Amino acid sequence: MVYKPKLISLCFFVIFLTFSISSQTSLACHLQSYTFFTSCTSNVPCTYDAQCGTGAITAYLPRTDEGGCVMGYIKGRYYTGSCGFSGGIGYCSCGDLTSVLDTSPSSNGQECERWSGRRCDTDYEEGNWDSSDSKCVVCNGKREVSYFDCNGDYNGDGKCESACSNDVGSCDDRDTGDYCGTNGRCTSDCSCCEASDSDGGKEYTVKGTTSGYYGGSCQSFNDTCVLEFGKVYLEEYFISNRGINSELYDCSQRTDGLVHCVDGRCGCLYDSDCPPGGTNNLVKGKCDSPSGTDNPDTSGYTYTCYWPACTKNDECVDNYCCDKDPAIPAADQGSGTCNWGPSSSSRIYKNKYLCDPPEWSSDIKTTSNKSVLDLIFIFFSHFFQR
Ligand SMILES: [Ca+2]
Ligand SMILES: [Ca+2]
Ligand SMILES: [Ca+2]
Ligand SMILES: [Ca+2]
Fold it and tell me: Is the CB of residue 198 less than 8 Å from the CB of residue 208?
């Protein structure tokens, strides 16, 4: 007798528990389908629901049941509309614009939701659908920080995620420094930094601009002259491993006359820096620079050697002569090349002298000297004859 009420209570509890468990399995969180409309007009006569709106679609809403979990994917915002009867006459009644769901995802970045908890509404979480990894991710800026499903919450990989931002492009599911695009690497800001070098790499005679990944961001550097260890070097930038790299280059080891670092490249400063060039490699080089001979054909200073046609003998290397030297009679002048050197005796002018054959002037000199002597001789011989 004493224990009877407790026994009854226990029986009721067991019955309640059994009912509770069975109702939870049969009434677990789920998505219920409804008809929605893109537009809806209230208070118009109707006989059935579809007359109240246009653009009817089937979509879902979470049903609040006794626990469990369900995932939904935002389809858009639509109206509910229903035909309600009062006194035998139907009138349309429209609901508010409502976010409705699909049961499966359809696009990258689509908003995804999880409904769970005691009545499917105590634990709500939302994220973005990552279609490449098939998961609902939680974003921090352009990166995935975590993801979730009905089995739990997980740490994200922290990588750039196109489901989080439209700016991620080819860096989706990649981290800072990872390869992307055709010749790029991802920056810390999740953009793909493509590498390029205007002078094609290590071109020491051209001032180049190199752009690409450097230290987590996209940067650009110009080849430049730097003072290091008491000497001026060329700091040459180039692309390496899809990023920017650089080296110090000593222009003075060159043999083409471009022996100084000038304005981000190897160049000449003085005419003496330039080796012989031009026709037959016999023309002395000139440097288009303030300390050299400015080349009027190029505006400003290019700090490069050039070899114009010669106009006089000293513009040719030692022991060679210019066929346009002013000492040559105009009728015999050439187009301005250095020749008539000892290595080509057949080309010595008139086959007699180097650069200054007597035919150019000595005949005239001899004639004038002789006439003066003649006058003196004539003058004195005049006295002796007396
Ligand atoms: Ca992704
Ligand atoms: Ca370069
Ligand atoms: Ca260069
Ligand atoms: Ca110039």
Answer: yes
